[in-house]
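Late entry, written up from scratch paper. The run itself happened at the end of the previous shift, but nothing got recorded in the book at the time, so transcribing now.
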Amino acid sequence: MRNWQPNNLPGTVRVMDHRTRRDIMTPNDFIEDAFRVEHEFLMEAVQDLTSEELAWRPGPEANPMGWILWHMLRVEDMWFQFFIQRQTEIWEKDGWNEKFGLPTRDNGFGHTQEQVDNFPVLDLAELLRYGDAVRAETLAYLKGLSPEDFDVVPREQRPEMSVGAIFRQVIGEVYQHQGHIAYLKGLVRSSKSES
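Output as recorded:
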């Protein structure tokens, strides 16, 4: 029995024959592209949200879109700046915490229902500027990584969280939260049209 090889199928073109090492997608390229696509989806979801929509909740225990957006940006900042690189988060370094009047180390993890209830509606354009600054730093860090760097464990107390595992975690989380925002936007707009 002959081993199956995708390039042995009739009509299959061997695309790798003409490629150089530079043309091969690296883990860094893949991650950067995943972040690029997520950002496109996110911008589509938030581009025309009003302050009222950012604060809207389908029920008393649901998180509003503005809180979700803030949380996802804060989490990315925390993982890559503070946790991995042991640097001051952009949130504090660039004074975003002061601009928004929010605590320095807060990122939404463990927020109580009361904290979510009292969370302010943040200016969307300013929040997106903060997000752009965070993403620029994340991508700058990513560009400097070698394949071996993805296996580094930055904090001994969290041995399961290698640099690669953190990228996987953050990519999953930002896609998940971007989906939450898009879904909630659909809910709030469909509830308006029914009124």
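The radius of gyration is 20 Å.
(Scratch paper discarded after transcription.)
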